[in-house]
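Researcher: Here's my situation. A collaborator sent me these components and asked whether they could plausibly form a single complex. I don't have experimental data yet, so a predicted model of the whole assembly would be a useful starting point for our discussion.
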Amino acid sequence: MINTTVYQIENKDYLLVDKIQDYFYFSNTEDDTDMMIRKIKNEDDSLFLPLDDESEYQKALSLFISKKIQ
Amino acid sequence: MKEYSYDENYGKNFQIQVPDFVLNPDPDRRRELSENLRNNSISVKPVSSNKKGNRSVSFKNKLKHDLLWMGVGASLGSVVLAGVNYDNLKTYFEEQKITHEVLNEFFAHAIAPNRHTNIRYINGYSAPVTGDDGNVTYYYDSSAIGKKMSNLIANGVSEEEVIYSAYATMINTDSDVDDFYAAMNSAGLSSEKNAWALDHGYTDMNDPRFEKDAERKIVQRYYEKAYHKSQEMDEMLKVEYTDSFSEQQSIGGK
């Protein structure tokens, strides 16, 4: 087993699947297919911000894939 | 009950539990999940959160999450994959799929038949016992599981692979850890918590290096086996072809 962090966001529990730079990759603990990427500013993980646009979304996914296949 | 046999079954009978769309790409399903992820990530307002603390996740579940995320990412194609080595990505999927399948098979043959639901009785009716997290709790025949583990090791499967398979599929809650070490004891392996890991140069059983090493051995054994199968098949075809050729020569000669 590995230990990972759980965050409660809008009354739902999300598993932190990974954290790369300021990006957080979440999966709902009750529903694997409910996923989201958020970012933080100034290392404050009490407020999760949306990604700016499609380009940032693709960048965040690219970072995730690159890390996994290293 | 089906006997668990390294030669005949192990690594052959797969029960795939990886989300379907990853292994059997369904363009509609992928599109739907990609759209959901995009909408959850971009078109939303900032949200505050509470860190609820740590949760233990089995290696098997972690693998599933990784595959799901990779599947969605890969489905976006060239834009996201620009700069990503495609061969490495293919290898990643292939190896994770093999690992997941082998774990599923280990679970089906070694764990599931020896895992029993804890039952309580209320007013004469039985009901499963649930833990704080709402999950059903189990008890294990750790002796039988240990026997399966030692059989596999005796048949040439590496200790890393066997122990990783048991650790990844047997433990869902912290209370299962005791059963895991009882199975280790029954298999004739170090039964003190983390002792085997420490003896083999890992920090503990959750050391990511252990996960990597075990997965590498799973994949290596899988390919070796596939190679032997392919050689056997080549030999069989060669014999059939030679026999058939000799027969034709013989007929032609008459």
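Model: Some features of this prediction you could bring to your collaborator: Chain A touches chain B at residues 1-10, 13, 15, 17-18, 25, 27, 29, 32-38, 45-54, 56-58, 60-62, 64-66, 68-69 (CB under 8 Å). Chain A has one domain: 6-68.
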